[in-house]
Amino acid sequence: MNLYLIGHDYRYAAEQMLLTLFPDERPVYPDGRPTGDRAELRLMSGAKVTTATCVLVYQGRTANGRTSVPNEELTDPNETDRRLQGAVKRAFYRAAMGIGLPHRPWGMLTGVRPGKLMTPLLAQGMGDVQAARYFERHYDVAPARAALVDEFVANIGAHLTTQPSDALTLAETGTLTVEVEAAEPLPAAVLDVLKDTLTRAYGHVTCMTTVRPELIGGVCLRIGDTHYDGTLRHALDLLEQDAANSALHTTDENPDLAACIRDRLADTHVAIDVFQTGVVTSLSDGICRVRGMADVMAGELLAFDGTLRGMVMDLGREDIGVVLLGPYGHLQEGDRVRRTGQIMSVPVGEEMIGRVVDALGRPIDGHGPIRTTERRAIESPAPGVIARKGVSVPLQTGIKAIDALVPIGRGQRELIIGDRQTGKTAIAIDAILNQKDTGVLCIYVAIGQKESTVAGVVQKLRDRGAMAYTTVVCAHASETAPMLYIAPYAGAAIGEYFMYRGRDVLIVYDDLSKQAVAYREISLLLQRPPGREAYPGDVFYLHSRLLERAARLSEEAGGGSMTALPIIETQAGDISAYIPTNVISITDGQIFLETDLFHAGVRPAINVGLSVSRVGGAAQLGAMKQVAGRLRMDLAQYRELASFAQFGSDLDKATRDTLARGSRMTELLKQPQYAPMDAADQVAVLFAAGEGYTDTIAVEDVPHYADALLARIHRTYPELHALVHSGKKLPPEALERLRTLADETLKNL
Q1: In angstroms, rounded to a whole number, what is the distance separating the alpha carbons of residues 664 and 662?
Q2: If you ran DSSP here, which 8-state letter would residue 325 be given?
Q3: Cβ neighbours of residue 222 under 8 Å, at least 6 residues apart?
């Protein structure tokens, strides 16, 4: 037989397979164009995989064989040749099986000797039957395929179900077409039993039988889009997917990975897997159209080849629109896609705390797999009116300007809004840092940000011990639009798990503007009808159904809470644009950051006039409410007068006093990043300013006075901390003590 080696020189591998499969043939290496009985063995290296192909022509029959090796597995020079030779041999083998040669076990052809390997397996406690199944699957040792067929026929009746699409076909035509695929011709008696089972389940059926040796063993039924697969080939494919998805991992009870694989092989030996499939008809920009799967659900997770997953977002009359959740470069038109029967979900549980995950809940921090067994749908109904409880417990951010002016309560939705580079993320991160030792769990959802930016945030949280109670969900800028779209919902699902178990959760969406843009891209690519391309139609519903999930639950519903801090980026301070207006209307207040204030050195740059908390004093400590009563009015008057005072030269005393106090209050409210302040310290400095102790100090000396006052209080009056955190108003004696300390500090400044 003529051998043509293209792209390699693995003669030994080619000759070994030729002499084994065709004992009467001898290898010949002719020159010129391929002719006669021949094997054309080609090795091609691509961007991601190296593929070995074989075109075999023998006695008028032609068959093709193909196998691939990921390039990432070819980094070791000592192993590369061995892997590539194995790929060439397997391609030859598959082509030979395709022309109808008698089945020759692959394990035998490649030098695997089950007899030699059986002894240590039996010594480890593996039974005869389990060991036989292990070699049937792992080494392709020829199984008793007749037994697989018999067991499939005996068990198929319990798995048959009438899908809605099947019922419609029966109603219209009165019959169902059943495709029967087997690795080898089925005996007539077996076919008769199978037809009787199908007839009892569906009535009149028409069976079409096909022999496919590549199935290795077992039987597969196809009824419409539904598959009833009990073949060894399918079991091996599932094992391969589990390995790729890291679903196979060791445990403390079973530390041997080989044992995990053996157990999985034993469990799936003759299992009948029921699923529906469709065919990809078009593909572009992270969106594909799929024909088939008439019974698929909106929001259902679909499985493509490998680790790629997709989510159904558009149900059409002829096909469905699917958004792809991950790299899809290997996907092609004509590829099959499989229903999972599961609504899109993410893993949840205590194991998620302290981890950095993507929008699908998969770890991306390099700290190993997340071994949690619980999952939660990314979309779930918000708590109803009866299940909710009024917001009355404060969530301290550690930022004086917020805790005093726009207090946030547990279960509240407080919008952070402003132009880019005005400190929106800084406020959210400080709020997370301030939850240390409070029992509040935090979730930071990064949407459309650079990976380096997210890495910097994670490092800041880790350096300050905040990752011990924080989960970071990241859909970075280079990810596809669907990943940016589902990231906030994934974060909400993770937070809801804890909320419904009585825990308090703080979740930050940074930011929802990028989610809206991603959703608009998805809608346009899906070619939805006019008015559903996100602006103005769907984006309001997009954000409302997300933010409504933040709530404080009643004791009967669990007693937990989830506080949402959504972030929205404005353009040139325009809060009347569509997205800002919508989000303002479905939140409980907003913190507006002004660009001019930011550039003037006011950090955080909160515009007091436009910032508001609709929960108000109900979410404020009693002591804070006591000392911050006039602060908002004083600052608002100051901002109003300051814009006009620059044009006046002769100001009355009241105006000068208002301007003086306002400038000192503004200076007092300045706060560096990553330095949240305890509530007791905030109360102390705001009380001193409100009582006028800073009115006679130079503006630049106000921070020094505040630091000196706090140092004195920490040294001589530590009881203030407990009084403030009790939630009650300060008694008169405490106020008098604060006046004394403020006066002493002023004299010693």
Answers
A1: 5
A2: -
A3: 178, 179, 181, 228
* Residue 707 CA: distances (Å) to CA of 1, 626, 670: 92, 21, 13
C-alpha distances (whole Å) from 732 to each of 32, 630, 735, 737 are 105, 19, 5, 9
Cα separation, 41 vs 476, whole angstroms: 43
Structure tokens at 388: 């909710």
Query: What is the value of pTM for the model shown?
Result: 0.74
Q: Which of 295, 289, 337, 293 has the alpha carbon at shortest distance from 313?
A: 289
Q: Say yes or no to pLDDT of 464 above 90.
A: yes
Q: Strands 470-475 and 440-447, how do they pair?
A: parallel
First to last CA, the chain: 101
Tell me how far apart the alpha carbons of residues 442 and 581 are, in angstroms, rounded to a whole number.
27
Residue-by-residue DSSP string for 465-524: TGGGGEEEEEE-TTS-HHHHHHHHHHHHHHHHHHHTTT-EEEEEEETHHHHHHHHHHHHH
Following DSSP, what letter does each residue of 77-143 receive, concatenated? HHHHHHHHHHHHHHHHHHHHHHTTPPP--HHHHTT--HHHHHHHHHHTT--HHHHHHHHHHHS-PPP
The pLDDT tens digits for 408-462 are 999 999 999 999 999 999 999 999 999 999 999 999 999 999 999 999 999 999 9
Residue range 362-374, pLDDT digits in tens = 999 999 999 898 9
Task: Name all domains of the chain by residue range, CATH numbers in brackets.
Answer: 2-102 (3.30.160.100), 273-343 (2.40.30.20), 350-620 (3.40.50.300), 621-749 (1.20.150.20)
Question: What's the confidence (pLDDT) of residue 125?
Answer: 62
* The pair of three-digit structure tokens given for residue 576, joined into one six-digit string: 């009347």
User: What's at 539, amino acid-wise?
Assistant: V
Give me the catalytic one of 336, 545, 614, 712.
Answer: 614
Dump pLDDT digits (tens) for 110-144. Answer: 444 444 454 555 556 655 555 555 555 444 444 45
- Rounded to whole angstroms, how far apart are CA atoms 517 and 448? 10
Tens of pLDDT, residues 278-300? 999 999 888 999 998 888 998 99
User: What is the three-class DSSP state of 629?
Assistant: coil
Which residue matches tokens 């559903």?
Answer: 532
Higher pLDDT, 571 or 126: 571
SS3 call for 226: strand
Burial class (CB in 10 A: 0-12, 13-18, 19+), 78: exposed
Q: Which two tokens stand for residue 55?
A: 């075109």
Query: Is position 528 annotated as part of the catalytic site?
Result: no
- How many helices (H) and strands (E) the chain has is answered by 25, 24
Best CA proximity match to 457, nearest among 378, 365, 394, 371: 365
Number of Cβ within 10 Å of residue 80's Cβ equals 15
Among 717, 707, 692, 714, CA closest to 748: 707
Instruction: Let me know how long the chain is.
Output: 749
97 — phi, psi (to 5°)? -65, -30
Query: Residue 339 is encoded by which pair of tokens?
Result: 């229903």
